[in-house]
Specification:
The chain is built from 6 helices and 9 strands; from the N terminus they run E-E-E-H-H-H-E-E-H-E-E-H-E-H-E. The protein has one domain: Alpha-Beta Plaits (2-Layer Sandwich). Strand 4 (about 110-115) and strand 5 (about 120-125) form a beta hairpin. By secondary structure, it is of the alpha+beta class. The strands form 3 sheets. A 5-stranded antiparallel β-sheet has the order 8-3-5-4-9, with helices on both faces. Strands 1-2 form a two-stranded antiparallel sheet. Strands 6-7 form a two-stranded antiparallel sheet. Helices cover about 45% and strands about 15% of the residues.
Length: about 240
């Protein structure tokens, strides 16, 4: 079993290396019109086809990251403009999602910040290490073997196809729970969240500060409040 694969692609490429902080955005199903999505995807695909031809793997990775960020900004601007399926405007729904995100802090991830918008959520966290990556050399072979088996068992819970993606597993659990409970409150059934989420690896402190500022300012940028600190559904561990 391959336990350390960090990259896969659905409609968007997903790069999920261990030991990093991630910026996540996920949205309500049906929150954007199909035509707007297809236009963005078409433009993104054209750029991806060009990047696919780059020989250097490091340059290709950097270009993929840049394209994803540009795609995200365009996508997020659309989300701020449309009001399709904005269930998160409901106070009870927003509170349930807010509490669910906070509940997982220090369990699934080290939570840095998040904000809940009317039709999407921005989230920044670092996955919590759920097993030791190495053992003291003095430990006996039996303990080492047991640890490796436990590591494999935990990774297997997060498998997609033949590989493991801890970030994806965290989001699956969060979205599954909140979708079920929100549907109960709304007395509805069916999909609640859009299946795929946007994930971006935060590579340094400068980028982290930029992203945290982006997340916390989103309500003001969308003209939901004048002062971003007045938005009830934002959280930041540094404030």
């Amino acid at each position: 079993m391959e336990l350390n694969k960090t990259y896969y692609r659905r409609h968007l490429p997903h790069y999920q290396p261990e030991g990093y902080t991630f910026f996540i955005t996920f949205r309500l199903t049906g929150s954007l019109p199909h035509t707007a999505i297809e236009k963005l995807k078409s433009e993104y695909k054209n750029h991806i086809n060009i990047v696919d031809g780059i020989q250097s793997q490091e340059e290709k990775r950097i270009k993929y990251s840049e394209l994803k960020w540009n795609y995200f900004e365009n996508f997020d601007s659309l989300l701020d403009k449309y009001s399709n399926n904005n269930f998160l405007k409901n106070i009870s729904i927003a509170k349930l999602v807010y509490d669910s995100i906070l509940f997982r802090d220090k369990k699934d991830y080290d939570l840095i910040c998040f904000t809940i918008m009317p039709n999407h959520v921005h989230l920044v966290f670092s996955p919590v290490e759920r097993f030791a990556e190495s053992l003291n050399e003095k430990q006996d072979k039996k303990l080492l073997a047991e640890s490796l088996k436990e590591k494999e068992r935990i990774h297997a819970k997060g498998r997609i196809g033949d590989s493991t993606y801890i970030v994806t597993k965290i989001l699956q659990d969060l979205k599954k729970y909140t979708a079920r409970e929100c549907n109960k409150l709304l007395d509805r059934s069916g999909a609640f969240w859009q299946h795929e989420s946007y994930d971006h690896v935060v590579r340094n402190e400068v980028e982290l500060n930029k992203i945290v500022e982006y997340v916390l300012n989103n309500p003001a940028k969308a003209k939901l409040v004048e002062n971003p600190y007045d938005w009830k559904w934002s959280y930041c561990k540094y404030l």
